[in-house]
Design a protein that fits this description.
It is a single chain. This protein is an all-alpha fold and 180 residues long. The chain has nine helices and no strands. Among the domains are: 33 residues; 89 residues, Orthogonal Bundle (Chromosomal Replication Initiator Protein Dnaa, Chain: A). 66% of the residues lie in helices and 0% in strands. The model has no long low-confidence stretch (mean pLDDT 79).
Length: 180
């Protein structure tokens, strides 16, 4: 979390503290109070009217949006958890993903460890970071330590890895199966 405010811990802490103080100074804001269906529908009176009319929507107080949006988000989360559970029950770890990704890019696995700006290594590392964080549920700190890179580097490449996987139609299960 602190990495979002700076690479150096003392600087990041100072900036985070300033960010919090600025928010506290704003006080309670009515547009940020309440949540879920109540806020999305326009308040309690709108929710009561919907219920009287026999209209029910899926809701979750953590999310703003209509019932269809909430369903889609929860469905995606369930799918993600299924994948994560499936991989963990198979004993899949980052140590399995690294050689599979390196094989895909025709590079030696030791080259992905540590800093490098070589384009192929950067792309391979982005995929490893993406799959380790999003599919295995590892923290970015764990991934950064494992790959011997800065936390900010791991954090910044997760979305790049997602784009690479999407653009090239890659899935972690497919590359692991191809590596067997």
């Amino acid at each position: 979390m602190l990495a979002l405010f700076g690479e150096e811990k003392s600087v990041a802490r100072r900036r985070y503290r300033a960010f919090l103080m600025k928010g506290i100074a704003l006080g309670t804001q009515s547009e940020l109070v309440g949540g879920g269906l109540i806020r999305s529908a326009g308040g309690w009176s709108a929710v009561r009217l919907m219920r009287k009319a026999g209209l029910f929507q899926k809701s979750d107080e953590r999310m703003l949006g209509d019932g269809e949006f909430v369903e889609r988000v929860l469905s995606d989360a369930r799918e993600s958890m299924k994948t994560r559970y499936s991989l963990s029950t198979q004993g899949i770890s980052i140590a399995d993903i690294i050689p599979a990704v390196c094989n895909l890019f025709s590079i030696e696995p030791h080259r992905i460890i540590g800093p490098s700006k070589e384009r192929t290594i950067v792309k391979a590392r982005a995929l490893v970071c993406y799959w380790a964080v999003r599919e295995l549920g590892m923290t970015m700190t764990e991934v950064a330590k494992h790959l011997k890179i800065a936390l900010s580097t791991a954090s910044s490449v997760v979305n790049k890895g997602e784009k690479i996987a999407r653009d090239q139609g890659l899935s972690v299960k497919d590359i692991l199966n191809a590596n067997k």
